[in-house]
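Please go through the protein record below and see whether the fold suits the sequence. Record follows.
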Amino acid sequence: MTNQITTTWLGNMKFESTNPSGHNLFIDAGAENGGNDEGYRPKALMLSGLAGCAGLDVASLIKKMKLDVDTFKIEIEANLTEEHPKYYDKVEMNFHFYGNHLDEKKLQRAVDLSAETYCGVLEMFRQFAAVTIQTFYHKN
């Protein structure tokens, strides 16, 4: 299976990118780089893709395992190399689960299944970055 996107220059530093879902997004540079700050930054968008991929896996597993979770979020901190071409060489993913009846063992299993089996974006990141994953549980 292949995905196809088309990214079209809209002038200055702004682009519109299609997506197989039918939802388009805008990419732009900040004012410091000649843009108008009207879109996502490409490297940060990669991190959103990573969080989204793992998040969809975990949300699906929460549903499948019938777990009681009020909400969860994924925070990612990534280190960008100094020299060009700059890329992420270290990525830390932190999963935060919130609720009063969290099954920590099953939630950790969901995170592990995403990280080790399902999340293709995470596997892509592992080709160029050291990825660490931590899980945190919060009572409301």
About this structure: The two ends are 42 Å apart (CA to CA). The first strand starts at residue 7 and ends at 9.
